[in-house]
Structure formats: structure tokens, C-alpha cells
Amino acid sequence: MKLIVAIIRPEKLEEIQQALAERDVYLMTVTEVRGCGRQRGYTEVYRGSEVKIRLIPKLKLEIAVTEPFVEATIEALVHAARTGDTGAIGDGKIFVLPMDDCVRIRTGERGAEAIGP
């Protein structure tokens, strides 16, 4: 089992959900976050003075999958989250973490059975 954490542009969420659904991956948690990477923020004019915005709004997706779905999930995320054909700075990152256990609270199921439908 793996926990896939993806930081993405907010406007890409629907495309990503559609790409994941095509690969039978439906379960995810979405959190609004702020962060910066190579974009390093931007400058905005507020009440006549320039303000440097360093933390950019992003979405964090947390997706728990079993081993057979890891590569399909990563592929869907990469293709759907990429801007244009070649991508752009700020498209995001994907982190793949080992997951020792998972428990479905309702039934008490553990492991891969708790992730499934």
C-alpha cells in the first residue's frame, strides 16, 4: 500500500478527478494549502502599494492505493496536472510514501481491504 500526496494547481482538480476515475481511482482527500517552490510568489498591488505574495494557493491530494494502482495513479496525476504539452513551473509535485496500515473505522477492516470499495 502507498500514500500518494500530490500538490497541484487548484484549477486542475476536475481534470485530475476525471483522469483518476478513468483508472478506477476514486478515493481521495483534498485540502486547500499554500506554498511556494520555484514560482517564489508574485507581486500584487493592494490599495496603491505593491505587496509580495510568497505563498501561492494550491491543493493537496492524499490518495491511498494498493500496489497495482500506484503507477496508474501517478500517470494520471502527471498527465492531468501538467500545463500544456511540456508543463510549467508551479504545476506541482507528487510524493509516494509507504503506508504500513489502514483501518476502515466502520467495519474494522485492515490493510488493502480497508482501501478498496
Offer a few descriptive terms:
117 residues; 4-stranded antiparallel sheet; two-stranded antiparallel sheet; Alpha-Beta Plaits; alpha+beta
Q: Work out the helix count.
A: 3
How many structural domains in the coordinates? Answer: 1
Largest sheet: 4 strands, antiparallel
Q: Could you tell me the CATH topology label.
A: Alpha-Beta Plaits
Mean pLDDT: 93
How many strand units?
6
Top CATH class: Alpha Beta
What is the quaternary state of this protein? Answer: single chain
The CATH architecture assignment turns out to be 2-Layer Sandwich
Question: What low-confidence regions span 5 or more consecutive residues with pLDDT below 50?
Answer: none
Q: What coarse outline follows from CA principal-axis ratios?
A: elongated
Termini, distance in Å?
Answer: 15 Å
The residue fraction in helices comes out at 10-25%
Question: What is the SS-derived class?
Answer: alpha+beta
Strand order of the largest sheet: 2-5-1-6
Order of helices and strands: EHEEEEHEH
As a percent range, the share of strand residues is 35-45%
Rg is: 17 Å
